[in-house]
TrEMBL record:
Signal peptide: none annotated. Binds 2 zinc ions per subunit. GO terms for molecular function: 3'-5' DNA helicase activity; ATP binding; ATP hydrolysis activity; DNA binding; zinc ion binding. This is Replication restart protein PriA. It comes from Paenimyroides marinum. InterPro entries: Helicase/UvrB_N, Helicase_ATP-bd, Helicase_C-like, P-loop_NTPase, PriA, PriA_3primeBD, PriA_3primeBD_sf, PriA_C. It is an enzyme of class 5 (isomerase). CDD domains: DEXHc_priA (cd17929), SF2_C_priA (cd18804). Zn(2+) 1 binds at C522, C525, C562, C565. HAMAP family: PriA.
Amino acid sequence: MEYFIDVVVPLSIATTFTYSVNQAEFIFLQPGMRVAVPFGKKKVYTAIVLSKHNQKPSVYTPKDILTIIDEQPIVTTKQLDFWQWIAQYYMCALGDVYKAALPSAFLLESETILSFNSTLVVDLSSLTDDEFLLYQAFEQQPILRFDEVQKILNKKQVFNVIDELLKKEIIFLNQHIHEKYKPKLVKYVTLHDTYKEENELINLLDHELKTEKQRALVLKYFQLSTQKSTIELKELLEKAGVSKAIYTNLEKKQIFETYSLAEDRVQFSDAFLNDIQFTELQNKTIQSIQNQFQQHDVVLLNAVTGSGKTEIYIELIKNALQNNSQVLFLVPEIGLTTQLVQRLTAYFGNKVAVFNSKYSENERVEVYHHVLNATEKAQIVIGSRSSIFLPFKNLGLIIVDEEHETTYKQVDPAPRFHTRDAAIVLAKMFHAKVLLGSATPSLESYYNAYQQKFGYTELLQRFKNVQLPQIVLVDLKEARRKKEVNGIFSMKLIEAITEAFYNGEQVLLFQNRRGFSPVLECLSCGHVPYCTMCDVGLTYYKRQNYLKCHYCGYTMAMPSKCHSCHSHDLTTKGLGTEQVEEALKNIFPNKNIARMDQDTTRGKFAFERLIDGFKNREIDAMVGTQMLAKGLDFDNVSLVGILNADNMLNFPDFRAYERAYQLMVQMAGRAGRKNKQGKVIIQTYNPYHNTIQQVTQNDYKGMFKEQMYERLNFKYPPFYRLIRLQLKHPDYEKVKEASQWLASNMKQSVQGILVLGPQEPSINRIRNQYIQVILIKLPINKSANALKKAIQKSINSLETIAKFKSVKTTISVDFY
C-alpha cells in the first residue's frame, strides 16, 4: 500500500499538493504538523499537513517529503477549518491564509547549499566555459549558495549549469533548513555543590575569597538566596555592584555555576486590583448582555463614549475565566493596546498576552505557543487583525472593541478579510459568544441587531452621569467674512484653547491628513509636482524639507523653482497635521505641542511614549489624524477641535457620511470624560449639512434611517454584498481591454448580479501600475457561494487568454 499526504504551501496557489510518505511517517504525521517539501526544481517550502490518504494522484507522481519538522501539530483542526472558510468566503488561495496566519518564524528559511566533491578526478576538457568557471570557484571555496553562483556567472538562470555539474557528480546539493525562532535564554547562578556543605562553606568565606569584591559578591548571593529560589546573574552583579570579570573568576574556580532558562520576552506584573464599583446603569447593562447571550451568540453594545465600556468588558472577561475559557479582545489600532494592557493587567496580571505587528517575531511566537498549549499566560489575548488566527483550544468570548472601525478590514495583501465578521464565524466554531462594542456602531451591525440577528443593549449615559460634550459649530464662511480667523484657526477655537490652557487642561485637535501640506503649486503656471510612479500629487513635509508620495513612499527634495516654468513663486495649499502643529506652536510658544499620525508613531514604542506623555500631562495639546478618535481615554481633555469637517463629507464613497458621523462623534467623545463637561468646536463651511446636524444632536438613529434609505435605493450593503475587482498592469491599454473583457464576460455568464464598470479610480496609477475597477453587487437573498464560483470562473477564463496573462486581478469581498 502507498501512503500520501495533502499539504498547503505558503504560496498564492489555489490548489493543495500531494506528497509521498513511508508507512512510519504516515502513522506519525497528523493534520497541522509542518513538513519540509521540495517544490519545483530547486525550492524547499514549509508545508502544513491537511490530510493523509492512500489515493495516488492521477495527474502527477508525488515527490517524497524531505523531513518532518514538528513532533506535535502547531495548527489545530479548528484553525484549518477556519482557514478554509476564509479562503472560500474571501475568494483567495489557502496558501495566502497560511502565510498570514502563522508568524513568519514558523515558515522555515530555505537555503540551497552546493558542496564540492573534492575526491573526484575531473576531465576538464568535458566542461563548458560556465561549468569550468564554477569548477574553479569550487576549488577556491568548496561550499557555495545559489545566489553566489549567480554572481560568479553573472546570470540569473544558472540552474542548467548546476544541473550538469550535479549529473557529473562534481558537486552535491544539500538543503539546509533552519528555524528563525530562538528562545530568550536568561542566565542564572547557583553555588557549586562542593560548597553546599557547612565545612566547605566556612573554608570558602575564610580562605578562598581573595578580594573584598569577591566577598561582596558571595555575600550578596546568600542574601538573595533567602528571598528567592532562582537568582539571575544580571541582578546579582547589579546588586553586588561588581563587574562580570569578578564573577567569571569565581566561576573558573568552581565556586559558582551558571545555567540558562528560557523566558518570555514580554511579561506583565501580577494583578493588583480586584473589585470594580459599578453604577446601577452599568450593572443593568451587564445583566442585559448576559440575558441576551442566552438567546444570541452575538450581542451589540451601543454605549456612548466615556460610559465605562472597558469596565463592563472586564466583568465579562472575569465570568469567561471562571469557566476556564480563553478570551480574545480585538482592538482596531495598535495604539489602543497600550492603555488597554495597563487596565487589563491591573485586574488579570500575567494572564494577559499581546499579539500585534509592533511586537517582534520571537515575541509573537511565544504568545502563539502559550495559546496553543492553553497556558495561563495567554488566557486573555489583546490583539489586532492577525490575532484571530491564533490556535485557540477553548475560546469562550470574543470582544470586538470599536467594531465600526474600517481598520478591521484587511486591504493588502490577501486574505482581504474583515476581522469582525471572521471573528463571528470563529466564535461559532467554538460555540463562543461575541460582544461588539461601539458608541457609533457600523450600519451593518446595527441593522443586524434591528433584524434581531444580534442581541442589542444600549448604555446611553456617561459614567457617574457626566454630561456629553457641548458641540459648537463655527461657520468658516461667516468667520472669514467677519475676519474672525487667524490662519487655520477661528477666533472661537483660539479662545477656547487659551481658556483650556489657563485652566491647566489639555486639548486635542483633529485634522485627517498628515504632512505639512497636500499640494505644492507654482503660482505662475499652476504646475503641481506629481509622483513619478503614481498618479497623485506629492505631499510637502516642512520639517524634512521634502515632498513625499503616501502611496509608494517616493520622495524628492523640495524644489527651489518650478520644474515646468522655472519660476521661484511656489506656494503650498491645503492643510496637514504638521502645519497645524507648527501654527499652534507659533500661537502658543510656551506650550508643549505634539503630533500623533503615521509619521510620528513608526517606532515600536512611539505610541506608548506619546500616550504616556499626554496622560502624565507633559504634553498640553496633541494634533493628530483619526488615530486620536480610536477609543483613547484621557481624563484631563476639556476641548476637542475638528479643523475641517467638510473634508470627510466630500469623500467619493457611499460610506462617507456614515464614517464622517462616526469620526466626529468619536473625536467629540475624547472631551470631558471625568467630572466636567467637555467642549467640541467643529469648523465647517457647511454647518447645516444633515450629517453635521446629526453629530451636534448625537442623533445616531436619524443618521441610520437616512443612510439606510439611500443604501436600499442604490443597492448597497447591508442589502447587497459588494465585491471589488481591481485589475493592474503597467500597460494602460492592456489593463483597460482586460477589464472590459472581464466585465462583459460576467454580465453575460453570471446571472443574478449587478456588474458596474470597468472604471478608473480617482487615483488610477500606483507604483507604475495602471488600475481599473469593477464593482459587483450580490443580492443578500441569493446564495453567495454559487455566484462567487461563477465570478471566479470568469476571472480564471481571463487568465487563460495569453495577452491578459500578465494582468493582475485582486479580489476584495465585502469591500470597504
